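Hey team,

Filing this mostly as a record. A colleague (T.K.) asked me to run one chain through the structure pipeline before their review meeting, and I want the input and output archived in the tracker in case anyone asks later how it was produced. No errors, nothing strange. Just documentation.

Input sequence:
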Amino acid sequence: MSVIEQIHPLVTRRLRQEVLYPNQPIEHVILKEDDNGLHFGLYDNNKLISVVSLFIEGTEAQFRKFATDRNYQGKGYGSTLLNFILTYTKEQGVLNIWCNARISAIKFYKKHGFAGIGNPFVNNDIEYIRMAKTLDL
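Output structure:
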């Protein structure tokens, strides 16, 4: 059974590093904004499967460092966590939500109603594009 809980930012680090930056030191996944964000973890049978960090400013929200354990990708866990934060942000009065998505994840975000904004860009040798969604209140 899957459970989503708000977690401390320290809890996100291992999964962030293993999934997003496996060849980088753990310090690479620490955000200076972590203490100002909301962090959620999806657990299945008490095992942390997926994490995401959410930053809300007024009616806009950004989510960052969204990572799902490689052994559990493609099984709906990431979609479950994304749908959770979409519902959560909507309940907080957020009108627009966005992320800087890896090019390899565009299909996933489009499936959830996100659209690409602007041109792709490169950061730390990884290509990204901003993806956004307007939330219906």
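Quick notes for T.K.: The helical segments are 9-20, 77-91, 106-111. The radius of gyration is 14 Å.
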